[in-house]
Structure prediction request, 430 residues.
Amino acid sequence: MSQLESVFQRCGCRDATTRRQLNEKCPGLTEPEHGSWYFTAYVPTMTGGRTRVRRGGYGSRGAAEQARLELLAMPENRAAGQTLTLQRWLGQWLTTIEGQIRPTTMRSYREHVHNYLIPAIGHIELANLRACHVQAAFLNIGTRRTTSGRLLAASTQNRIRATLRSALSEAVRQDFISLNPASRIRLPKPYKVHPVLWTAAREAEWRATGVRPAVAVWTRQQLVAFLKTIRNDPHFALWWLVALTGLRRGEVAALRWTDIDLHDATLTVKEQIVVVDGQDVVGPPKSASSCRTIALDATTLRLLRNEWRLHHRVLRETGRNPDGYLFVNAKGQPLRPDYLTRRLGKLIANADLPPVRLHDLRHGAASLALAAGVDLKVVQHLLGDSSIITTADIYTTVLSEASRNAAEATASFILDAARTRLSLGGASQA
Prediction:
């Protein structure tokens, strides 16, 4: 039969001289078990046109004809899903969501799609993608290493899977496929790295070997030593604010004077600055709960008034900083988040203190607030965490003083009861 017909038979035999495939011209096709049956059909595309689809490997003409009829009977979108590779669908999906999500999330989606998903399974047709394909892909992805030589973290694998699941959920919603194969695979559970305190023992180990905890926060005494050392830094108010309130680096960089109410002693977080492809982008905070109003203490208010008097008023009079950012450089431009990270590292090194990241100051602010007896719900609001469980799970692990006091209080409670009972018992026997 001609390949132009809707159902035809062919095989993989080759001509003995030319080594070309004989396809439908093979004389062996007259034998019942030789070759396979194929069909062609024209189906809609996702752009509204039509394209030719060919399927093969069927054991009989009847099976090929039945498969063709089933394809033609599909709804338009489901039929269009037969013409798409996963690579094409992921590209279309990224185009569709552009501008609808946060820039940092979009950047992560692109990295996941182009660095991991397309190389692994982009060639598979969307309609033929199965959970076994996705599972095999992630077994391979899990063997890849980062630039530091470490295996890809379980948390990263789960984020990549979340990207694929989101893209395929949209394909299900648009009826290109019926099930989401990314939701049916197993991945390693992410390992939570909890912050620990820079105790004297940990500091001594770090100074001797250079080995440090993945996430560590300063003690109250270490924080005080840092603040004393940087007292004359031009942006002392910024470091003080982060250390006390736990603002994220993008949040503190995006603060404007209109976000500060010196009369009511409050600070409102409305925006953040994030770095995307080397560019600073102003956008909404990390989550809805990150939009928050924070009460300010008297010392912080005094520092902010000094900031206004010494810096902002001069900048305003010279026409710099027209957008009214709270913390700016000499040119009146907002401080970049990556600059804050580098600057903090230099200040810590000069102070000869154990290293912490800028985000670790956030951990420290929460831990100190909890150690000072601040209610957990208040600390959650201070940080802008979406869940109080997150606040409790992460930050209470570093409260060595509070934990020690709690342990002593619990032990005393039991011992006091035991002593009372023993003394009563002794009196009754006398």
Notes: The domain at 86-184 is CATH 1.10.150.130 (DNA polymerase; domain 1). Confidence is low (pLDDT under 50) at residues 424-430.
